[in-house]
Specification:
Number of helices: 22
Strand content: under 5%
Helix content: 55-70%
Number of strands: 4
Order of helices and strands: HEEHHHHHHHHHHHHHEHHHHHHHHE
Radius of gyration: 23 Å
């Protein structure tokens, strides 16, 4: 469909591409997927989409947060040193990093839905195997494979992004954080009951149940219409749009669906195309830093509770008086969590949605870049505040705010990355960003669980410095995606110009 000159002038960053296609008969109305999504609007389909795809966050949070509540037990059972405990988390994110790129490439070539289903089957299978790990080496290997499966869960976010009307993306996507919070609270609550009674192996088995149940409801969510149109599958895209319109009780746009097939999909070199090179490099820096800070906070919280590292002291572990379990009296060189520790973890975890209303307002009114810059700057400040000698309540308050801020950072960068790249490379863009993100997550355990024991203030300054770099990178991002239509493809130099926003 030829785009009107006025629309071309107003569109931000619309893509140019050469394509061979049949023009519709003169006078016949046509519409794009973008126009159909906006015309159909928000309705029951999107609520179902939000609940099902959002619930992928529950499964992902339980698998990722599992290590934080299991670490003290495996440290005791296998007599592990600090670096060995840190290596477990690092290998989980190594698996995530490697397979995030692979699954992102496959998703752009073969579809988001197929890769999402594959990733859940994979993660559930290896998670169950982990519960039977006979040794530390097997445990590390199997958790790395779980990390590889969990990396594909990001396709759920992409599917949500590609189905949501523009004005709802800035509101609905941050609300998905509620599911991550639910998964985090669920695993901590289960750990407080299961770990002291039937052990960490059963905790892992129970934690895999939500992912298995989600596999059964994926059939209610179709493949992305934007993906189908990018592969030239017009019939499937039209059928999906008609299904959404019927579910929402809305009318389809008049005319026929007209969108050319995009042949270039999921190519790594597109990420470093001159139009996206600076954006890609800065996004990678931000993802790496945000993950470093996020998992640093989580693991530092566990370390503070396990070792009572406050104000840089290296006080010996103090047995929680409320923990009378047999494991808590173990002669091992570890200190297991008691009820008070789990309570502190729950309170700080609830902080992940404390700033959600402000985060949503910032994203939609200040824009993605400025909002991210502000929250990253505040994160840097609160890392330094952790060094203040304070009461247990004060420390809990600082951890609460840190969890709120690092969660807001993730909300914003997830939305920005999904919006800034065109359909032909969106999954790859998310995949490579997710991989760089896991580099930060791989380093975080050695700072939170090793360096923090040697130099508390040194670890905090390192976290704070990284956050400042990310704040600067966020502020200087070249593209603002607030109110911007999702794009189709990138520029092909020297080709005739056809403009399409999807």
């Amino acid at each position: 469909m030829a785009t009107a000159p006025k629309e071309a002038e107003n569109a931000i960053g619309l893509e140019e591409i050469h394509m061979e296609r049949q023009e519709p008969p003169e006078g016949q109305k046509t519409f794009t997927v973008e126009e159909a999504v906006e015309t159909i609007g928000f309705g029951r389909f999107h609520i179902m989409l939000f609940l099902i795809m959002g619930s992928t966050g529950v499964a992902e949070a339980m698998e990722i947060m599992l290590i934080a509540v299991v670490s003290p037990l495996i440290r005791c059972e296998w007599q592990l040193q600090d670096w060995q405990v840190a290596l477990v988390t690092t290998m989980v994110f190594f698996g995530y990093m490697v397979f995030s790129i692979v699954l992102g490439l496959l998703a752009d070539r073969y579809g988001r839905w197929k890769i999402l289903l594959l990733s859940f089957l994979w993660a559930a299978y290896f998670s169950l195997l982990t519960s039977f790990a006979p040794s530390y080496i097997w445990f590390v290997f199997l958790r790395a494979m779980v990390g590889g499966g969990v990396s594909g869960h990001a396709q759920g976010l992409i599917i949500k992004t590609e189905f949501l009307p523009t004005k709802y993306r800035g509101y609905m996507l941050p609300l998905s954080q509620v599911f991550w919070l639910a998964g985090s609270l669920l695993i901590i609550g289960l750990a407080s009951v299961v770990n002291p009674t039937i052990g960490w192996r059963w905790l892992i088995r129970i934690a895999s149940i939500p992912g298995i149940l989600l596999i059964l409801v994926f059939k209610f969510i179709p493949e992305s219409a934007r993906y189908n149109i990018s592969t030239g599958n017009m019939a499937a895209a039209l059928a999906t749009l008609q299904r959404i319109a019927k579910t929402n009780g809305a009318a389809m746009p008049e005319g026929v669906l007209r969108e050319p097939a995009k042949e270039r999909r999921g190519r790594f070199k597109d990420l470093i195309h001159p139009k996206y090179l600076r954006t890609t490099l800065q996004i990678w820096i931000i993802w790496l830093g945000i993950a470093f800070a996020y998992y640093g906070v989580i693991l530092a919280s566990a370390e503070l509770l396990e070792r009572d590292l406050v104000c840089g002291s290296a006080a010996p572990p103090v047995q929680d008086p409320g923990d009378d379990s047999e494991e808590s009296r173990s002669p091992c060189h570890c200190h297991l969590f008691g009820p008070a520790a789990y309570q502190t973890m729950i309170i700080s975890t609830v902080g992940e949605i404390a700033l959600n209303p402000l985060n949503i307002l910032g994203i939609n009114f200040l824009g993605r870049r400025l909002s991210l810059c502000i929250t990253m700057g505040c994160t840097a400040l609160f890392f330094l505040l952790l060094n203040i000698c304070t009461s247990s309540t004060g420390m809990t308050g600082f951890l609460f705010m840190l969890r709120a801020l690092v969660s807001a950072n993730f909300n914003t960068i997830y939305i920005y990355t999904a919006e800034v790249y065109p359909t032909t490379m969106r999954a790859l863009g998310m995949g490579t960003s997710g991989s760089l993100c896991r580099v930060g997550a791989m380093v975080a355990p050695f700072i939170s669980q090793v360096l923090m024991s040697a130099s508390f203030i040194g670890a905090l300054c390192l976290f704070s410095s990284v956050c400042i770099v990310c704040a600067i990178s966020a502020f200087t991002l070249p593209i603002e995606t607030k109110g911007r239509a999702l794009q189709v493809c990138i520029t092909t130099p020297g080709a005739p110009v056809y403009l399409h926003a999807i």
